[in-house]
Amino acid sequence: MLNIIICEDNKVQLRQIQDIIEYELTNLKIDSSIDLATSNPKDVIDYLRKNKEKCFIYFLDVDLKADMNGIELAKNIRKYDLRGYIVFVTSHVESSFLTFKYKVQAFDYILKMDDDILRKDISECLFQAYNNYKRITSEERKTIAIKYNNKVTNFYMDEILFFETMEIDHKLKMHTEKGIFEFYGKLKDIEDEMPSNYYRSHRSYLVNTSKIRSVDARECIIYMINGDSCLVSKRYLKGLKAYV
């Protein structure tokens, strides 16, 4: 799902952009929602730190009356989100040249001019970004084939939280966002098949690092985004820090 963040220091214009986006999401039948609408750029960074697994389209005012302007905010966003869609909303066309200087890879620029033009530009931007996002995710979304309930089922790798071994020889438990599944297999074989964001945190666990909410290094426990948990051995703690 493509989520939306708005940062605009003018409260009237913030409300206007929110209203336009909410209307166009319904009008265009786009599966998206506004996660955050704020006048404070620090709120955006704080939200990103807690929601690294999400994909966003950002509507940023360039001339923020804050400690950082929209261009500087975009630079900070890129530290956490390399693939998000950044859209600058500005009254000054010359501001667009600054994005090249600071290399923030803007998706689009929208000028605050006539209200009808503003609505049209936001609508087009939402439509293009969402279609681009759908195309990329459909191409990149990978599955793993697992024999479950006497038939082979394809599970999306990005929905899996972690694998764990069971007391029964060669039997594994797969924790996913949609439930827990038990099947026969070897953890080493699964590890060889999974992408690089999966990490062997323990001899009995293989964890999807993109689904980690937090790590309790003292207790050697990994907490997942859904509240589930698994173990990390002390010898693998250092390696895990490269992912979270």
UniProtKB/TrEMBL annotation:
<dbReference type="Pfam" id="PF04397">
    <property type="entry name" value="LytTR"/>
</dbReference>
<keyword id="KW-0597">Phosphoprotein</keyword>
<feature type="domain" description="Response regulatory">
    <location>
        <begin position="3"/>
        <end position="127"/>
    </location>
</feature>
<dbReference type="GO" id="GO:0003677">
    <property type="term" value="F:DNA binding"/>
</dbReference>
<dbReference type="Pfam" id="PF00072">
    <property type="entry name" value="Response_reg"/>
</dbReference>
<protein>
    <recommendedName>
        <fullName>Stage 0 sporulation protein A homolog</fullName>
    </recommendedName>
</protein>
<keyword id="KW-0010">Activator</keyword>
<dbReference type="InterPro" id="IPR046947">
    <property type="entry name" value="LytR-like"/>
</dbReference>
<dbReference type="InterPro" id="IPR001789">
    <property type="entry name" value="Sig_transdc_resp-reg_receiver"/>
</dbReference>
<feature type="modified residue" description="4-aspartylphosphate">
    <location>
        <position position="61"/>
    </location>
</feature>
<keyword id="KW-0902">Two-component regulatory system</keyword>
<dbReference type="GO" id="GO:0000156">
    <property type="term" value="F:phosphorelay response regulator activity"/>
</dbReference>
<feature type="domain" description="HTH LytTR-type">
    <location>
        <begin position="144"/>
        <end position="244"/>
    </location>
</feature>
<keyword id="KW-0963">Cytoplasm</keyword>
<comment type="function">
    <text>May play the central regulatory role in sporulation. It may be an element of the effector pathway responsible for the activation of sporulation genes in response to nutritional stress. Spo0A may act in concert with spo0H (a sigma factor) to control the expression of some genes that are critical to the sporulation process.</text>
</comment>
<dbReference type="InterPro" id="IPR007492">
    <property type="entry name" value="LytTR_DNA-bd_dom"/>
</dbReference>
<dbReference type="InterPro" id="IPR011006">
    <property type="entry name" value="CheY-like_superfamily"/>
</dbReference>
<comment type="function">
    <text>Required for high-level post-exponential phase expression of a series of secreted proteins.</text>
</comment>
